[in-house]
Each structure stands twice: as C-alpha cells, then as structure tokens.
What we know:
- This protein is mostly beta strands.
- It is built from 2 helices and 9 strands.
- It has helices at residues 26-32, 101-104; strands at 5-10, 15-23, 44-48, 51-55, 63-68, 74-81, 86-91, 93-98, 113-117.
- Strands 6-5-8-3-2-1-9 form a 7-stranded mixed sheet.
- The longest helix is centred in the N-terminal third of the chain and has 7 residues, at 26-32.
- The relative contact order is 0.29.
Amino acid sequence: MATQTYEIVDARTNTLVARMVEEATGRWRSFRGLMLTKHLPSERGLLIRPARGIHTHFMRFPIDLIFLDERNRVVKIRSSMPPWRIAPARAAAVIEVAAGLADAAGVRIGDEFLFRSV
C-alpha cells in the first residue's frame, strides 16, 4: 500500500506549512509516529487521522502538534512538546512537525489547511 504524502498550505495566509507530510496508515504506524526518527527536517511531517492522543515516548527531539477538526481547521496547537510527554486530545487529525514550525508559519487557531497531494 502506497503512503499518501501532502503539501500543506494555510488558507488564511497562503503560507506553506510543510512540503512533505506523510499520512500514517494503520494503527501501528499511527502509534509509532515519529518515535524511531533521528531527526525531523523542517519541511517534513506526519499526519495522523484520527487523533485520540499523541505521545512522544522514545523520541529524541521536541515537536509541534497541530490538531485539526473534520474541515481541516486548526483547533489546538501544542508547541515544542518535549520527549516523554502525552497530549490527550480528540481531533479529526493531528500534524506532527518540527518544533517551532507552527509559530514560524504563523499558524493560528481557526486557520484552515489545504492538503495537496505530492
């Protein structure tokens, strides 16, 4: 099964949030997330649908979490979440990106994200 990859743009600002966001397919990939990743380049990320809660166990670096509703609108942002933490949430999706990226891209609660297949 091929993994879907997206470019994500903030519709409010027309800003590119991330160039290569891979969708986690299956329960194992969603659970594993980025925990075995050594480094997360700023243009990459991981999309998890649905998001019942995110953990950073066994991770080596902090990440930003951008939680989305069913219409791909930002409902919550958790910036620079360090390793060994849990972020409980019930969201339609979460995007995990490099720490500081949400702020650098100017992402705000209520912003709508556009997903473009790459």
